[in-house]
Amino acid sequence: MLELVLLVVQISALAVATYAGRARLKKLLNEAQNGNAAIQVDELRDDLPELDRSILRLLAERQGVMYQSEIMKELGLPKSTLHKALRRLSEGGYVEIQKRGRFNVVILKKPTSEASAT
Questions:
Q1: What CATH number is attached to the domain comprising 100?
Q2: pLDDT confidence of 35, banded at 50, 70, 90?
Q3: For the chain, how many structural domains are there in total?
């Protein structure tokens, strides 16, 4: 009986955590849609690798916020390849990576033209 109660409590806690994570992601999406994630795809720097440009285009199409795992599936990339590309983009000021429990949320940080100037 105690095991059943513990199982119900664990499932409830998981449901609450999932809801809270979705609420935060919705907030990030709303911020991105209000202009924080504008990007001019045509103005992407030519010295960026094609992979990096593909990631930025995908983020721009998705209102500037995606889970790292979604990017990996969408572009068909190995985890390590995507991690290295996102690290480059983060260091270049193009994206921000926020940890959400076991997942990473990738956020288009600023317009590409601003990042190019730095």
A1: 1.10.10.10
A2: low
A3: 1
Contacts of 112 (CB under 8 A, 6+ apart): 39, 40, 41, 43, 44, 45, 56, 94
Neighbours of 84 (CB within 10 A): 13
Q: Which long-range contacts (CB under 8 A, 24 or more apart) does 27-35 make?
A: 28/65, 28/105, 28/107, 29/63, 29/65, 32/63, 32/64, 32/65, 32/107, 32/108, 33/63
Burial (CB < 10 A; 0-12, 13-18, 19+), residue 93, is middle
What is the residue range of 87's domain?
2-117
Say whether pTM exceeds 0.85: no
Letter string b/e over residues 41-77, b meaning 16 or more CB atoms within 10 A of that residue's CB: eeebeeebeebbbbbbebbbebbbbbebeebbeeeeb
pLDDT digits (tens, 9 = 90+) for 54-100: 999 999 888 889 999 999 999 999 999 999 999 999 998 899 999 98
